[in-house]
Amino acid sequence: MRTPNRRRRRLIALAVGLGTPLVAAVGVRLALDWSDSMPYEGAVTEQRYIVIACLAVACVAASTVAAVILWKRAGRSG
Fold this sequence. Notes:
Elements: H1 4-36, H2 43-76
Helix pairs in contact: 1-2
């Protein structure tokens, strides 16, 4: 039988695992809107797009790792 504390910790892990990618997607959309509001400068604009994409991937990867760690710790708690 799972304790309420364990359930709460697992819900937090799910919120981190699912919520952060959604926030990252919103951040990417806002960053791309910002980038598109500037004049197109060829290589500079393309580099900006790559940096935005890399930051989003890093956020999602970090949130996935954090969610897995939180989930495993919740499973160990009594």
